[in-house]
Amino acid sequence: MSDAKALSPFNSALETGVRALVLLAEAYPRVVDLQRLLMFDYLVVHTGDAEGPESLHPDLPLRNGELLVRRHLVERGVLLMVSRRLVDRLAADSGIGYVAAEGAEPYLDQLRAPYTRRLRERAAWVITRFADHNDASLKRFFDANFERWTREFQSVQTPGGVP
User: Per residue, what are the HEC states of the chain?
Assistant: First the structure.
């Protein structure tokens, strides 16, 4: 592996950690478990899939598989933010949850890149739209949309869009 690839911030714990931090800051004071944070992470970069603002990341045909492979990466990212005291990890009867720590907003206020601004806008949309959904409702939304996204992918892959 080249040094440039090894040091890339893309698809790294740093990238997913910053996204998790933005989502948790927007959700504050809600405590968010890892499964919900994983779903929110998908939604924040693919808002267009949920009839929201234009997606931050390209609408690639296999993006619906991202949820299946990114759990470990999101978890590493959240733990990186915990290690930097930007996120607090809380134990409850229902399991482990995460909440933005006191230093989260001042840290995020220092990130001024256009991508970060767009990320924060989309995180606000995701939290407004989905944070009050219970787990069953959120799962139904993803199940229904996975089916739609898969159909869209299949129609793109066949000549002339004919299945």
Answer: CCHHHHCCCCCCHHHHHHHHHHHHHHHCCCCEEHHHHHHHHHHHHCHHHHCCCCCCCCCCCCHHHHHHHCHHHHHHHHHHHHHCCCEEEEEECCEEEEEECCCHHHHHHCCCCHHHHHHHHHHHHHHHHHCCCCHHHHHHHHHHHHHHHHHHHHHHHCHHHCC
Q: Which pTM does this prediction carry?
A: 0.82
Q: What is the pLDDT of residue 142?
A: 83
What are the pLDDT digits (tens) for 106-141?
Answer: 999 999 999 999 999 999 999 999 999 999 999 898
Return the residue matching tokens 């066949």: 158
